[in-house]
What does this fold into?
Amino acid sequence: MAKRVSITRAQRESRIGAELLELCQRVTEDGRLSEKGIKEIVRWLRNNRDADLPAKDFLLEKVARIVADRHVTLEEQKELYKSIEAILPPNSRKVAVRQRKELEVACNDCAKLAKNRGETEQRKRVCSDGETNTAIAENGREYNLNSLTQRVEYGEETFLGIARRLGDEVAAMVEKNVKLSWFNGNWNVDLSVLASWEGHLAKAVAASCCEGLSL
It folds into this structure.
């Protein structure tokens, strides 16, 4: 039978158990481990190396191996995060897992958006014909990109409206070309859509989804 490594109720009542629990909850609150958070864990383990706590022993073994070369890769960050999940009590573990998965979704959305934008740019170059840029809608029909861009700039259409009518690719092409302007007291774009994209991108960028850490 595997030895229990999660912090028990009785251990949480001790100073050392309460300290480790608070530290683990704090460093995982963003769904990832930052360089500062990993250094805090290393420092705590060094200062409490003699503590009689299975969770500490389990975490010490993982950390010692991962930080041995003073460089923590993205995969090692994920491994260490999941090791911390393993020592958390059930309720705290659920929170840490949820935060990690929410961040993973945000990173995936960011990658998909970047990929879609790249494909849109490539398609735009292929469809460009002299002075007339054409956009191919989901229904297969071609539309004048300059005309669609002007309709958005003059407040006659929004990106969301174009996406619903002609598809996301066409809307992305128009968005790339449009010059945002103030029209009749309102921005001529659907701010809720931009806010949603901005939220995912900001969270993904803050998470450094594609980079390791040098300690």
